[in-house]
Amino acid sequence: MEEIKATGEIKEVEQSVVEMANELNNFIQSQHHFFQNASHELKTPLMTIQGYAEGIKDGIFEGEDAERGLNVMVAEINRLKKIINEIILLAKLDSEADIYHVKKVNVEQFIEKVMERAIPIANDQNKEIILTKITNHILSFDEGGKMLQAVMNIVTNAIRHAHQRVEISVRTENNQLRIEVVDDGNGIDEDVIQKLFHRFVKGKSGGETGLGLAIARAIVERSGGIIKAENTINKGAKFSILFTKHEKNTD
Question: Where is the Histidine kinase domain (predicted)?
């Protein structure tokens, strides 16, 4: 029997069904990878905790060794809590519109909050963080601290990978406000840079959970911005957050 080819509206419906099926398949695959990665990240600290707990219970670790084991267990429990909290936050960012409470924010005051939190972190690692340039502006984004968390995720990542120095700048360019964070580290691995903002992606030097930059992207994009990363000519990494200007400059 000769195959009858779909035409006109039927053909359009067929194409739509195929596209939806492909999107569903991609979603299922991404969820599969997410749960695979999540289970691995959760399993690692749990195995460490279990190993030390059983060793202390059975008397294998005693005295200073037991004390050291307890300290490791506490650290791994805190790491586990961080992973779980970040997974929950990502789920909320993906599904809940009402967790955003948008209002106008003074960018200069916002960056001051970032610096107040970032300087002690940099000092603790014997690194320098400076604000090289700031163009004041008024932007509208979430007032509940989510954008602050997004920028701090980027800044702490830069501090961790920097050799000595991290620079933050805020400037306007082509009707866009740009918040840039630049470090003097080794840059981003080429095999990682295209998927850097995906969940559970870590560079060679690792990271705490592999979720911080994914959270930053989700918050920035939900706030109407764009986030991107690239290597600089000096081999460090540069992260840029871009917002289209709608309000007048406050200078």
Answer: 37-247
